Amino acid sequence: MAPSPTRYTYCMTYASAADAMAILSRSAYLILDCEGRTIGCVGGALSILAIGTANASEIFLFDVVALADKNHSSLAPLLQLLRSEEIPKIVWDGRSDALELLLTYDVVLGGVLDLQLAEVISRAAVRGGGRRRLKWLATSYFRKIAAEVHANPSMFDDIHTVIGLDKCLQQCSVAVGQTKDPAVVALHASKGSEVWMERPLQPRLLQYAAHDIQLIGLLYAHFLRVGWIRRGRAAHALLREQSTRYIRVWTSRDQKTLINDLGLGVFVPMDTFTALSEDKEKHDCVSCKRELTQTCFTVRKATGKLQRKRCCRLCEVTARNKRRPIDESWVEIMTE
């Protein structure tokens, strides 16, 4: 059954974008999602910035192609709202969205609470799934090296897979029976994501973007209701801190493309759950090109010196699982 039409306001002019602020700025929290051409990847481009108020009671679709001037004075209040740490933004996997907003509008997205990350955290913290994590890894993604998962579990510490929005909705029995518009699915199949860059945008695509905001809003309410997101300032502050690290993991489209090529996009990035401080030493992974803390690497003591692998543990195990060559050499860890 197709979902009933979702009401939205389509903002194609700077004046309409400014008018939307009268409503958005008063909301207790915002729901955010982006659509475009292979967003976050090489050749990507932002098309629609979708923002909903609390409970998705009002939804605004900002046409980024029409609102391309990031220095326009009428756009300034919206961009400042996106930067604000004071107003929470609820997202589902905001990594690509945050990157596109940075590259398109020079906006560092602030105040983010990422439901995809919250779902991962809830597995052990709320649903008692911590002990099942290794079994799941061994029987799903790492089934080709299942013996290693069981024999060397510490190698897989802090390695977590993520799931997509549709799968989470199904698992939570939220929006039951509301399937994706088959016409939009067919458009994606025939034209790919380039369809989002065509103008005028087809009404079905606008409806699709608005409906995603509605779904994220329903999922947020469900997470709060069942305790997957814990109430209270301290719990929310911690999740927002972790979400910030999560969505800012990519700083360029080249980096995200590399991560996808390595098959790492289905995992929570290493160090997401690590409370980082400026004085904590970082090391370069020669595979994923990320700077990571020492706990993300295999470490040993040889000839009285501390050494680490040149590749992080996540790159190591995914390469072995995919039977892909990887740098297995060691490098000395310099200590003061």
UniProtKB/TrEMBL annotation:
GO biological process: nucleobase-containing compound metabolic process
Superkingdom assignment: Eukaryota
GO molecular function: 3'-5' exonuclease activity; nucleic acid binding
Annotated Pfam families: DNA_pol_A_exo1 (PF01612)
3'-5' exonuclease domain boundaries: 12-142
PANTHER family: RIBONUCLEASE D
Name by which UniProt lists this protein: 3'-5' exonuclease domain-containing protein
